[in-house]
Amino acid sequence: MTNVSELQQLIESEISHYSALWDQSHPVNLYKPICYALKVGGKRIRPLMVLLSYQLFKDDPEEILKAAIAIELFHNFTLLHDDIMDKAEMRRNQPSVHIRFNENTAILSGDVMAFLAYGLLFEIKSERKADIISQFTYTAREVCEGQQLDMDFESRSDVTSGEYIGMIRLKTAVLLGCSLKVGGWLGGCDEDVAQSLYDAGICMGLAFQLKDDLLDTFGEEKAFGKIIGGDIISNKKTFLLTEALQRADYQQKKLMGNWLSKEIFNKEEKIHTIKAIYKELDIQTITVNKINEFTSRGIEILESLPVAADRKEPLMELVRNLISRNN
Amino acid sequence: MTNVSELQQLIESEISHYSALWDQSHPVNLYKPICYALKVGGKRIRPLMVLLSYQLFKDDPEEILKAAIAIELFHNFTLLHDDIMDKAEMRRNQPSVHIRFNENTAILSGDVMAFLAYGLLFEIKSERKADIISQFTYTAREVCEGQQLDMDFESRSDVTSGEYIGMIRLKTAVLLGCSLKVGGWLGGCDEDVAQSLYDAGICMGLAFQLKDDLLDTFGEEKAFGKIIGGDIISNKKTFLLTEALQRADYQQKKLMGNWLSKEIFNKEEKIHTIKAIYKELDIQTITVNKINEFTSRGIEILESLPVAADRKEPLMELVRNLISRNN
Question: Looking at chain B, which residue has its C-alpha nearest residue A31?
Answer without folding.
Answer: B145
